[in-house]
Amino acid sequence: GAGVSQTPSNKVTEKGKYVELRCDPISGHTALYWYRQSLGQGPEFLIYFQGTGAADDSGLPNDRFFAVRPEGSVSTLKIQRTERGDSAVYLCASSPEGLASRARVFGPGTRLTVL
Amino acid sequence: SQQGEEDPQALSIQEGENATMNCSYKTSINNLQWYRQNSGRGLVHLILIRSNEREKHSGRLRVTLDTSKKSSSLLITASRAADTASYFCATDVQGAQKLVFGQGTRLTINP
Q1: Which of A47, A48, A71 lies closest to A59 in space, CA to CA?
Q2: Lowest mean pLDDT: which of A19-28, A89-98, B20-29, B83-92?
Q3: Each residue's pLDDT tens digit, B81-102
Q4: Which of A57, A102, A112 best tests the B interface by mutation, with the highest count of B CBs <10 A?
Q5: Closest CB to B48 among A59, A91, A103
Q6: Is A112 on the interface with B (CB under 8 A)?
């Protein structure tokens, strides 16, 4: 596609519920990243995929967070037993390769609100 | 965790003036990138400077990098009201594939 797309754009859920956030990267981009951004803060790294595999998941805050990318394109970030502190904008980015020399192309984000 | 610190946290200037934002970081890097964000949503890549470069230009943007001081600056010349946004520096840390962001500078250009 023309850019990175994320769905939904907004998600409101209740504490304790399960949510899935979807990211559709630019076609052909093998590297995919998830970030979380709280109000007034910079984006915080969550996980990085190279192809289908999670090459670095060191940013996932706890085992309630999980992400998959089964076919090396679309990725889903899954949050179990949501807590109010999970409220944030979840950003996805992709780049052509997993080399440390590339600009990332970011999607518009999903704003998650946990009531 | 955040790698970088940006200074100032907020900057308000008159249209036509130059805006300078600074960024400091902690670890060795492959490159440093600057991004812009409007209204708390998607980030837009502005410029990338590699660790072996000292200065780079792109249109009205000038970026410097001092690896000995682990710092960078972003200069926007002849600012416009449309430059109003948050600006983030981000480092590609050596030995990792993740981009680590600073806290950002909120820039306001007054017409």
Answers
A1: A47
A2: A89-98
A3: 999 999 999 998 777 778 899 9
A4: A102
A5: A103
A6: no
